[in-house]
Design goal:
Blueprint lengths: L1 H12 L4 H4 L2 H11 L19 H21 L3 H5 L10 H10 L11 H46 L7 H13 L3 H17 L8 H11 L16 H6 L11 H10 L4 H24 L3 H4 L1 H7 L31 H14 L8 H5 L2 H7 L5 H17 L1 H12 L9 H18 L7 H10 L6 H14 L3 H4 L16 H11 L19 H15 L4 E3 L7 H18 L8 E5 L4 H11 L7 E3 L4 H8 L7 E5 H6 L1 H4 L3 E8 L10 H6 L3 E8 L9 H10 L7 H16 L5 H18 L3 E2 L3 H4 L6 E8 L3 H11 L2 H16 L4 H23 L2 H4 L5 H7 L9 H4 L7 H12 L20 E5 L2 H12 L8 E4 L5 H13 L5 E5 H4 L10 E4 L6 H8 L11 E8 L3 H8 L5 H6 L38 H6 L3 H6 L9 H7 L2 H9 L1
Parallel strand pairs: 1-6, 1-7, 2-4, 2-5, 3-4, 5-6, 8-13, 9-11, 9-12, 10-11, 12-13
Length: 1114
């Protein structure tokens, strides 16, 4: 290496080589060293190996001696040993291998004794160690010889004129180019080889043609970079092997380690080394020859045009900016692998050539563009990679050709290969060019989004990924001039510019004039919502309308469906296409009623697709008579086989957050539906974690946010890590960046307005928390649980899960079951002791309750007394304050209509039963009420709502939050009472907005009844979880996401020390026992599904409270 540096310096100072000519004796010495081709004897007249290997040779000879001694002492190899002459002092690698191979062991030792078997095994072990050492030594010795010989050859090249015989110089240099693992040494050999080729110009006979051909062949040696036609024969292979990625590993050592650790074939590593070496040599040739490269080395141009044929120079786009590239298709009979290899050589050379040669290279571009639609998928992949490499160095011309020729392929309905190739190329361009594509983004986005619903999965996946990556670049494209290299008709046209502005800022959308008349005057924000929906329809996009509850999402979505129907009729497109509206079963009738109220039935004819299986079969025969089918999520799950066969115009998911769980049966069924336009309506698109947003977009635009695993890795994990109070600054920064990136990604496809922003005339909503103290019976039962073995068992389970941090499925299931049972028990106890004791209290409880209930009293009837449930007492007081429950008749017997009407929400139907029986029937007999819960058949629920809204003499509507909290319009009520509360604050807020919505004229008072110092008080503190993620991901520009923290939940199992005496702050310290049991990661995992806490069927099936109570009392 020193000699090479010295000779290069001398040559740079004296180009005529006068001084170098005086070093002939050094040159001859170097040539003598090159003549020693045997790696075992690197110097003349010496039998010594490389000194670096002396210790390894000593180890090999020691193992050979041990094998010889062991074989001789056992007496089993006397004949063999007597014919072997082993000189351990000069034993070579080949000699050691030959000696070991002569010691053949018996393959069948079944007849041998135990001691003889042991001897055979010992000798075999020594033999294998010797063979292992010789193999390692031979490999290291060969690599060392390649390095040394290449350095010597490089010194010969740089010292003076080349010798007459070039083979001793060329062979080491080519060996280093092909096999040298160290990039620095490989680069030195490649540079020397380029210098040798330079000096051989004009030499007859010369080695240059053969050397160039070999270098071009080596560029195709890497199977990871050069697609193998025999292996890559379908798009599934490309997807499975994740081949749609651009960029190479520059550090071959990292590549080597990765491949070996994965157990891959050694040939992949060798191929990667050979490709790198050949490209280094070609790089030095390009620098050395500059613009005369192809004149001096015509063989290189021959290799580039072996199959690819250039167009004449006058057809080049560089010669005339107004001419377009015309694609040239390669004949399908050409061997695909030979074509791929030709493309790979061009891919390697293109980024290196002098700028003056780029026009000549571009004459090959039409053929490469034609290969993008080749019938063989591996050829398409090779062409896409090659064009991406060319685009990095000749951006304007190549991108112009791509937009002129390849982008139109995305719309080629006659050739799936063309669409796949075009999608593949765009994917690689987006990855390879990154921000360099900013000025081209508006020209790519519109064609991409038009084929995001392609019937081919591979096309759909590639264009969706590309579209998702280009969306964040659009803000950077604002104000930029059109990119150069494009024909006039392809410069940013008016439609693309308008699309860009609208995609970035919803306020720029022009008012859309509906083609139908609505029986209502639209508010300004509703017109803007229809503008946005029409924009989505025009560009075949899909989105989430997540306006606040009560702002008219039903009206806006119905209007866009109606106008689509009217416009299709105006264009004489034949019969109407059916649209499908999916909503909770309670809202099926509500949708039909709203459509009938706002839109003439000559435009939209609805069909409520509900009822039994037999009824639904007959209803399907009426589909052709209607253009809007309204059904429930559960019906879709049951009838997906029939519904998925139909091609729908619009598919609207009302309360679309129901499909937030990507694994649920309902979600899987909904995602099988085929529709031209997909729309989700939800006031709370994300209620618990960011992963829910992925499931929604997987319905809207599959692949837009990547796979679920990719989304979790990109956004979910950084956000979860940043939420931890103990996270590092790096984790916090990563969380912020992930949040901002997600916001930019989804921003154009969500529209969000809140009531505070758009309804200045909406009356105020006043939330009042009424605290109640536990009754003696409740306190006794609460304390009994706190001191029970069950509570300790739960603490131990959760603590163990946290400490081990190992996801053991059986243990996790057991802990989850116990935690849910305990939470259910305590929350029911807060509402009423009868909910946990039951109508037939166990004998074990009678003794406990005897301290607070006289033994003479009948325990069952006594527990129905109002004073044992402070919540019922508080409810009675609220109703009386509203003028409900007192004497409501006048002196002449006429019924007075009260000034207030009340909605009473509970989580459990059993609590509504108690309110009816113990309060209304016993103490407030004059109260008129209706009831709406899960026991009411879905098709009858909306009739109850209409009755309540139309009859002002009905004072109260009893509802469960699960059934009555979604979608209903109950603005005739102005007072809401929450008897129980949900872990998920959004569910309670959804219920509140049944009354506090558009159409409400009175101030809405919300009363939340909370038991002081208990689990309920802590639930309410959890509901105050700050909405940082909501404001960052979906903010006032578009939408909303809300979540909550579930840390410190084991503390909920212990009553506050001063329960029944004074209120404890929500941030009060935890008691020691609870504090030790509070889980971090373990507890979060167990309580990950608390938003579904009040799914009654889940409790009934999996978390049986009766069994839990028996264990508690046992």
């Amino acid at each position: 290496m020193v000699l090479v540096a010295w000779f290069k310096e001398l040559r740079s100072r004296e180009p005529d080589g006068t001084v170098l000519g005086l070093l002939e004796h050094i040159r001859q010495w170097l040539l003598d060293l090159l003549s020693c081709s045997d790696p075992a004897f690197p110097t003349k007249e010496s039998l010594l190996p490389y000194s670096e290997l002396s210790r390894t040779y000593a180890k090999m000879r020691g193992e050979a001696g041990l094998l010889l001694q062991s074989a001789g002492s056992c007496g089993l190899f006397q004949d063999v040993i007597s014919n072997i002459n082993v000189d351990l002092d000069v034993l070579s690698i080949d000699g050691a291998v030959n000696f070991a191979s002569k010691l053949l062991l018996h393959t069948d030792s079944s007849g041998a004794g135990i001691s003889e078997k042991q001897i055979w095994d010992d000798i075999e072990g020594i033999k294998q160690r010797l063979l292992s050492t010789t193999g390692y030594l031979k490999c290291v010795q060969n690599n060392l010889h390649v390095t040394v010989s290449a350095s010597i050859a490089a010194a010969v090249v740089w010292i003076s004129e080349l010798p007459a015989r070039l083979n001793p110089v060329i062979l080491p240099l080519m060996a280093a180019v092909k096999r040298e693992q160290e990039e620095v040494l490989q680069r030195k050999a490649a540079e020397a080889l380029a210098e040798l080729i330079f000096h051989c110009i004009g030499r007859k006979p010369g080695p240059n043609d053969k050397l160039i051909k070999n270098l071009c062949s080596l560029t195709c040696a890497d199977s990871c970079e050069t697609p193998q036609a025999a292996v890559i024969n379908s798009m599934d292979v490309i997807e499975d092997q994740n081949l749609l990625s651009f960029g190479r590993t520059t550090n071959i050592q990292k590549t080597k380690t990765k491949v070996q650790s994965a157990g891959e074939d050694r040939s992949k590593v060798e191929g990667s080394i050979s490709r790198r070496g050949s490209e280094l040599a070609l790089e030095h040739l390009c620098k050395k020859f500059g613009a005369s490269l192809f004149d001096k080395l015509p063989k290189l141009w021959d290799c580039l045009t072996e199959i690819l044929k250039p167009v004449s120079s006058q057809d080049s786009l560089l010669a005339d900016d107004q001419k377009e590239f015309q694609m040239i298709d390669i004949h399908k009979d050409v061997d695909p692998q030979a074509l791929i290899n030709n493309i790979q050589v061009l891919r390697s050379v293109a980024p290196m050539v002098d700028e003056m040669l780029q026009p000549k290279l571009l004459t090959l571009l039409p053929c490469i563009l034609g290969c993008v639609r080749h019938c063989h998928v591996a050829v398409r992949l090779a062409a896409a990679r090659c064009i991406t490499s060319m685009a990095k160095s000749i951006t304007s011309v190549v991108m112009g050709a791509v937009i002129e020729n390849v982008i139109p392929m995305l719309a080629d309905s006659n050739s799936v290969q063309a669409r796949q190739g075009a999608g593949m190329l765009v994917t690689l361009l987006v990855q390879g060019l990154g921000v360099e594509l900013v000025s081209y983004a508006p020209l790519l986005v519109v064609p991409l989004l038009r084929c995001m619903s392609d019937c081919d999965h591979a096309v759909r996946q590639s264009v969706t990924h590309s579209f998702a990556a280009l969306v964040p670049l659009l803000p950077l494209a604002r104000g930029l001039p059109p990119p150069s290299g494009l024909s006039e008709n392809l410069s940013r046209n008016a439609e693309d510019a308008q699309f860009l502005e609208q995609l970035l800022d919803n306020s720029h959308i022009d008012d859309y004039k509906l083609s139908v008349n609505l029986n209502v005057s639209l508010r300004r924000y509703q017109q803007e919502g229809i503008n946005w929906l029409s924009f989505l329809r025009r560009f075949k996009l899909h989105g989430i309308l997540c306006d606040d509850m009560g702002l008219g999402k039903t009206l806006q979505s119905s209007a866009i469906v109606a106008t689509d129907i009217a416009e299709r009729r105006a264009c004489n497109n034949g019969k109407d296409l059916q649209s499908l509206i999916i909503c909770p079963s309670t809202l099926v009738g509500h949708w039909a009623y709203e459509i009938e109220k706002f839109i003439d039935d000559s435009v939209m004819t609805t069909l409520q697709y509900v009822g039994s299986a037999q009824e639904r079969t007959s209803l399907r025969e009426q589909f052709d008579k209607c253009n809007v089918i309204i059904t429930s999520y559960d019906i879709v799950r049951k009838d997906i086989e029939s519904l998925s066969k139909l091609a729908w115009n619009y598919c609207i998911l009302d309360e679309g957050h129901i499909i937030k769980n990507s694994k649920s049966k309902i979600t899987c069924a909904v995602k099988q539906l085929k529709a031209e336009h997909r729309l989700i309506l939800s006031g709370t698109p994300i209620q618990n974690n960011v992963l829910e947003l992925w499931s929604l977009f997987d319905f809207l635009m599959p692949g837009f946010l990547g796979t679920e695993r990719q989304f979790q890795a990109t956004y979910g994990k950084p956000l979860l890590a940043a939420k931890d109070s103990k996270c590092s600054a790096k984790d916090a920064e990563a969380g912020v960046l992930a949040l901002e990136a997600l916001h930019k990604q989804v921003m154009p496809f969500l529209l969000r307005r809140t009531k505070d922003e758009v309804l200045s005339d909406l009356p105020e909503k006043i939330i009042q928390d009424r605290y109640c103290d536990l009754s003696p019976v409740q306190l006794k039962l609460y304390e009994q649980f706190s001191g029970s073995d069950t509570k300790q068992e739960i603490s131990t389970l959760v603590k163990s899960d946290e400490d081990t941090n190992i996801a053991v499925e059986t243990k996790s299931t057991k802990a989850t079951s116990h935690v849910f049972q305990a939470l259910q028990y305590l929350l029911k106890l807060c509402s009423h002791p009868l909910l946990v004791v039951g109508e037939k209290p166990p004998d074990s409880l009678k003794g406990i309750l005897s301290e607070v209930i006289p033994s003479s009293a009948d325990l069952r009837s006594e527990l129905h007394a109002l004073h044992h449930s402070p919540k019922l007492v508080a409810l009675k007081e609220i109703l009386e304050e509203c003028g409900i429950g007192s004497d409501t008749s006048t002196s002449d017997g006429a019924l007075l209509i009260g000034q207030h009407r009340v909605l009473i929400f509970a989580q459990h139907r059993s609590l509504l039963d108690i309110i009816e029986r113990d309060l209304f029937h016993s103490h407030m007999k004059s109260v008129t009420y209706l009831r709406l819960d899960g026991s009411v058949e879905p098709e009858k629920r909306f009739d109850i709502v209409k009755t309540f809204n139309s009859d002002p003499t009905i004072d109260v509507l009893l509802l469960t939050t699960h059934v009555g909290g979604l979608g209903l319009n109950l603005t005739t009520a102005d007072t809401l009472v929450f008897m129980e509360h949900d872990w998920n604050p959004m569910k309670d807020h959804q219920a509140m907005d049944r009354a506090h919505r558009l159409g409400q004229r009175k101030v809405v008072n919300v009363h939340r009844l909370i038991m002081r110092g208990t689990l309920e008080e802590k639930v309410m503190s959890l509901q105050k979880f700050k909405l940082s993620i909501a404001s960052a991901v979906i903010n006032s520009e578009n939408a909303s996401m809300k979540t909550m923290n579930t840390d410190q939940l084991l503390d909920l199992f212990t009553p506050a020390p001063n329960v029944g005496k004074a209120s404890r702050g929500s941030n009060g310290s935890l008691d020691e026992d609870s504090g030790t049991a509070v889980g971090g990661k373990g507890l979060k995992a167990i309580l990950n599904g608390l938003e579904e806490l009040w799914d009654q069927s889940q409790y009934t099936d999996e978390y049986n409270l009766g069994q839990f109570l028996a264990k508690l009392n046992g």
